């Protein structure tokens, strides 16, 4: 019966299913296997992505009616500008806090799990009134000052979990912080069949491009991901190498708003102006990224660190939000050599000249030099030395310890996450 189970509340503030949400989902699957009762509390399910993905692995989903002031995504610090702080507090956070307190009081939860600074701000006040263990997952590098970080993260939270040592080191000193790397189900990569993409490339590429070195980018179409640096560096490469030695770039990604559309258009115009368009293939987003990885020579990860932006919709300073890029783990498990910007968490996945090379994103020529090296030297993938630290077993055992589950060393093998979702959760509005 439910009353005999430990009760866990998961909180998701975003409507998008991305890296942090994959971690939450994997954790839900682990706890579900161990007979925990799981409630998923959503601040925004407007995309229907979160409830759809989580429903088979949680017992109930509660969707809160959240004020639009709290549904602006990007820099949540904008909530507290002088011009909007009254609205944020009185029409946004205070009503939200009241709803959470009512839900927590009725639920009598043993554990609370949430992600990132936004989750901490949205739950901070309600959680002060409840005894359950509070666990936070900070996916990206902390950029707040130490005093504010201590107040927000360590004053009322029992454990602050990070996906990499880089993220952990960005936090103030505390015995409450620890690293738990992403848990990857390696078995799924053995089942990848790249034949469909292989046939697509045969049709897509002209004869003089089929045997060229192929670089793959897969991700968001926004300046923070550094696509402009990739195309600028490629232009430099074009002016250096003979035409027959130039590689091609395949881009998997689709703009999701006007700012991203404008960003892509500016890059397309630059490529047209400089004679690069024939070497760059914009493919929109594809869900079969692993199949594409089977059919290219190198993966490119050109994310920025921090810089001034002049792109429309991205005025001012922009910066990376990486913590431990999952796509680099996936490329390495797929046996694909990567070229990666040396941002948070990257050097904990990439071993130089083994499964990739890294470059300094703050040096203007470094990406060009990396592309030139790869194109001329054509280094080979030699293995993935850090593979085991991303295993399901490591991920599951460390998280289960936080949730006070007593592991049997004889029966500690973790089952595949491909469990049969035979029962779906109850969904209710609040």
Automatic annotation (TrEMBL):
It holds the Pfam family Glycos_transf_1. GO terms for molecular function: glycosyltransferase activity. Coiled coil: none annotated. Keywords: Transferase. InterPro entries: Glyco_trans_1. Signal peptide: none annotated. It comes from the Bacteria. Residues 210-374 form the Glycosyl transferase family domain. This is Glycosyltransferase. It comes from Larkinella terrae. The lineage of its organism: Bacteria, Pseudomonadati, Bacteroidota, Cytophagia, Cytophagales.
């Amino acid at each position: 019966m439910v009353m005999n189970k430990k009760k866990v509340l998961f909180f998701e503030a975003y409507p998008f299913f991305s890296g942090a949400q994959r971690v939450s989902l994997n954790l839900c699957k682990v706890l579900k296997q161990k007979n925990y009762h799981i409630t998923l509390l959503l601040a925004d399910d407007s995309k229907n992505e979160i409830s759809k993905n989580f429903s088979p692995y949680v017992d109930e989903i509660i969707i809160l009616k959240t004020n639009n002031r709290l549904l602006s995504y990007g820099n949540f610090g904008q909530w507290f500008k002088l011009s909007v702080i009254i609205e944020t507090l009185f029409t946004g956070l205070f009503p939200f806090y009241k709803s959470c307190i009512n839900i927590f009081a009725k639920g009598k939860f043993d554990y609370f799990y949430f992600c990132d600074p936004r989750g901490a701000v949205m739950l901070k006040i309600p959680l002060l009134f409840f005894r359950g263990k509070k666990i936070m997952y900070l996916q990206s590098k902390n950029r707040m000052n130490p005093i504010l970080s201590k107040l927000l993260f360590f004053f009322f939270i029992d454990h602050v979990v990070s996906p990499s040592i880089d993220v952990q080191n960005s936090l103030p000193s505390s015995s409450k912080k620890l690293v738990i790397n992403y848990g990857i189900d390696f078995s799924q990569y053995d089942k990848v069949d790249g034949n469909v993409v292989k046939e697509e490339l045969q049709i897509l590429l002209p004869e003089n491009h089929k045997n060229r070195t192929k670089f793959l980018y897969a991700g968001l179409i926004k300046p923070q991901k550094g696509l402009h640096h990739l195309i600028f560096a490629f232009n430099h490469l074009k002016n250096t190498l003979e035409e027959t030695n130039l590689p091609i770039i395949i881009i998997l990604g689709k703009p999701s708003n006007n700012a991203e559309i404008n960003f892509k258009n500016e890059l397309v115009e630059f490529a047209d102006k400089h004679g690069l368009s024939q070497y760059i293939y914009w493919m929109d987003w594809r869900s079969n990224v692993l199949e594409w990885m089977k059919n290219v020579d190198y993966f490119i990860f050109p994310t920025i660190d921090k810089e001034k932006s002049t792109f429309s919709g991205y005025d001012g300073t922009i910066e990376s939000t990486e913590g431990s890029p999952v796509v680099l783990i996936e490329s390495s498990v797929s046996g694909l050599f990567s070229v990666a910007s040396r941002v948070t968490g990257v050097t904990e996945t990439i071993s130089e000249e083994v499964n990739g090379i890294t470059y300094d994103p703050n040096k203007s020529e470094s990406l060009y030099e990396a592309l030139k090296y790869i194109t001329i030297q054509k280094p080979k993938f030699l293995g993935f030395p850090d593979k085991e630290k991303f295993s399901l077993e490591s991920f599951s055992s460390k998280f289960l310890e936080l949730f006070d589950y007593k592991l049997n060393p004889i029966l500690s093998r973790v089952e595949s996450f491909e469990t049969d979702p035979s029962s779906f959760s109850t969904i209710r509005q609040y």
